Amino acid sequence: xxxxxxxxxxxxxxxxxxxxxxxxxxxxxxxxxxxxxxxxxxxxxxxxxxxxxxxxxxxxxxxxxxxxxxxxxxxxxxxxxxxxxxxxxxxxxxxxxxxxxxxxxxxxxxxxxxxxxxxxxxxxxxxxxxxxxxxxxxxxxxxxxxxxxxxxxxxxxxxxxxxxxxxxxxxxxxxxxxxxxxxxxxxxxxxxxxxxxxxxxxxxxxxxxxxx
Length: 212
Hints:
Structural class: alpha+beta
Helix content: 40-55%
Radius of gyration: 20 Å
Strand order of the largest sheet: 1-3-2
Number of strands: 8
CATH architecture of the largest domain: 2-Layer Sandwich
Largest sheet: 3 strands, antiparallel
């Protein structure tokens, strides 16, 4: 395997790739030009990682180079961050919810009851996309409901609404505020942040008084 194969384009293609795929579909999912995607797909074909098929390509999961690259991805990327960045490359209808929605809308300013050894990631996945989601998780060894380390906690729904915030699909600010108000004892500080960040009329006052 050539060292040039270990680059962000190949990594994104292999994370995003489905068992049978096309260059146009891959380029849309990873937000890369058709021409540049085509170049690296052809390199992967030469390595034997992908095989050309009528109007598309198939993944050769038994290929040694493929398994080395996937192992490199799993071992080298930050575990928690990988769960989020991989999700963006799946090309499925998803929506961050609950604590993750709060985290996104506070722009990383508020996180609660999560740490490296226990880090649930709360998402909604459209029912029609759930089999594809499971296929990705199996291939990339991303955990679901494991209660150890990072893992997805998934709501499978027929449909839902989501908005794009900082590159992630997430519940609307209004839905997020409603969630925090229903769980006020855990999210009162976050409501204070949201109130200031988005100039929202929220009846909350959490800040400690400085007596010095």
